[in-house]
Amino acid sequence: MRRAPSVILIVAAVVALGLVPVLAPPFYANLLVPFYGYAIALLGFNLLFGYGGLLSFGHAMFLGLGAYGAAVIAGVWGIKEFEIVLIGAALAGLVVALPLGWLVVRYTGIFFGMLTLAFGMLTHSVLFKFYHLTGGDSGMRVPRMRLLGLEFAAYNKIELMAGPFYYYCLALMLIAAFLMWRIVHSPFGLHLRSLRDNAQKALYLGVRVHQFRLAAFVISAIYGAIGGAILGFRTGLADPELVYWTHSGHLVFMTVLGGFSSFLGPIIGALALTLLQDQLQSYTQYWRFVLGAILALVVIFLPRGLAGLAADVGSFLSSPRRRPGPVQLPEHSQPGVLGPGLRRDDVA
Amino acid sequence: MTAGNLVVDIDGSPILRRVSLEVSAGELVCLVGRNGAGKSTTFRTIMGARKPVSGAIALEGRELLGLAPFEIARLGIGFAPEESEVFGDLTVAENILLPTWTRATQRSATEREALAYRVFPRLERYRARGGQQLSGGERKMVSIARALALDPKLLLLDEPTEGLSPAVVPSIVDGIGSIRQLGHAVLIAESNLHHVPDFADRLYVIERGEIIYAGAPADVRKDLAVARVVDGVG
What pTM, to 2 d.p., does this model score? Predict the structure, then answer.
């Protein structure tokens, strides 16, 4: 029952998020909508980075793809069903990521990072310069869409964002997180972790290294495009800034802040940075300086991010040494087992 | 598996000079040679990690040259390299489970896992332990058990007892004996003749990239030059 406290915390967090539109002013619910977009995108980003060991510096291109996809499908083609837009964005992510991934997954480390950065910048240039096609620096308008076939005509934009769309995004994030949980705990996830650890050894065991990396790249792109569609709907705009390299850096920041070695780390990072940025912007114009300092401190003192810190605090609080009375073995221990794989006869 | 006239150059220097080896089904063969003689290069070449200048490698008549290491592993050659790097972030159980997914054989995944633990029973109680928490001997056991879980036709073990405490060596040798009894062909690289298992069928001695002896283990010292090499006095 070791997971029980974590499950309770997750349920409590979901309930708390569900209560935001009810208990807090619409401003906060509206503020959290981008968080859901980022959370979904980062779930995919961390499949590549945290589980696959491939750090992309151009991942924002897939968020842009999702937002521009929404602009084209809803704005240009006039299909105002958000579900179709999500499917279209996911397909766009798939179609772009397949050939791109085929090339970039042959490289690792700094070369993979630089290649993704280069393709991200290339995408930015195309969006920025092809004015007649993409609207240039003005971007493309993403119109209001129907959710589950419902118009919500009585709601203005803020009410829609802080009400129906908020819950829609919350549900979407939960589904995306559940699917990703299944992915990382499947044989596929184990293969990816082995590649991150030592790709050469994995090859000797028959693992198709490039194929697994490509699959992770494509899945992460699909998650990114879905997140981007949410961001586009929320702002009503798809603009080149979405794919600019600083936005890719923003994704890396969120992931490191939350902790890339934890499944929930990127979600925690997205929430923390969304709230932190909002607060800092209201206090000082030098908020970027403060964010930079925070990132430096996190890297130095909290390499496992906020999720790692939370895990350490949880372990400390539940440590038997902090409790009065006789020392007890953890509930999950088998008779004779002192810890993972350690028995009493090993200690003697 | 047959390897014929393998010539391998690294950065222009000849490392293997017309090396020929053969391991038949169910056989346990040792490749003995000093450090730098070309044992590891021979294994890496068989696994497709090094491209030979010339020569041929075949497994049951199937040409292996030009195939990627993962394809060679899937055809049935398991490799436990000298460094014995286990996947540190994976548990012992996950390390051993991984190859059961990459190659389909007549044995089920459960059966193959069970065999791996039967060969090294000590690993059974370390199932949940992370790879980074293992001692050198345990890492070696996981490395061999993991290669065995591939259910290979041929198992390549590069210096399986190198750098281990003398107290651990018998466990490894016993494990290799069990693997042989399971019917797998085994090719072991060893730098120390004294570590060659008593039950080895044949022996090759490699010196400066050339095979200088091929035959029964008992006859290896009959040639004075070969005896000097295996005794490390040449």
Answer: 0.88
